[in-house]
UniProtKB/TrEMBL annotation:
<keyword id="KW-0732">Signal</keyword>
<dbReference type="Pfam" id="PF12570">
    <property type="entry name" value="DUF3750"/>
</dbReference>
<protein>
    <submittedName>
        <fullName>DUF3750 domain-containing protein</fullName>
    </submittedName>
</protein>
<dbReference type="InterPro" id="IPR022224">
    <property type="entry name" value="DUF3750"/>
</dbReference>
<feature type="signal peptide">
    <location>
        <begin position="1"/>
        <end position="25"/>
    </location>
</feature>
Amino acid sequence: MAVKWIILCFVGVLLLSFGYSYARAAHTKTEPASQNWATARRDSAGIAPDPVKLRSTAIIQIYAAPTYGWRGLVAVHPWIIFKREGETAFTRYDVISWGSTNVVRRNYAIPDGYWFGSKPKLLVDHRGAQAEAMIPNIVAAIKSYPYPHTYHAWPGPNSNTFMAHIGREVPDLQLDMPSNAIGKDYRGITNPIGLPPSGRGVQVSVLGLLGVTLGVEEGVEVNVLGLNLGVDFKNPALRLPFVGRVGFDNPQNAGL
């Protein structure tokens, strides 16, 4: 009986979360209904700082935006940008499933551009000496990504798997990936236990389909078929499937 109620509650959360995601998408939609991927907005969202004005400052930022089309109701696409001290342009890295056998792309799009019509949200912002010290580790993490020629939208590996890999390798990023970043929990069948995407805590996950995460940034999160439900205790919030975070924002991003 207890198992039955747990299942019913989980299904109820899924339905409510999807309904909320759909309503939010309809309310915030700015693109015409006739818009398609080729003409969807890709210009700057005006979030990234001016790299020329901040020439003397090292900067790291991570973004996530709803994916294109109906998948934007359930999942996000992340990317990372960075520049070293003295540089006047950002370098961007994300994983893209089309156009090349190498899914890891450098400068595929502008640093803070709309993702096929969807405005990105800032997840991480580090600047100064701390950022400068992390950049070599980020570059090494990108090079060591274990799936450079493989992409599966569900359950992974995909763009969220890539960003989670960087977070694990560079815990100083304090990366808190949203619960609707499907693929962030993907782990190889021979490596089901390890660090969560934040790089601090523990995660048990079977191919991103079933698992649990206990992390400093993530709190407690349960994954069933790639759908995550949990509670963040550090910055109190619910972590819901389809929706992402509902509660207080990470203070490192407040006001950005």
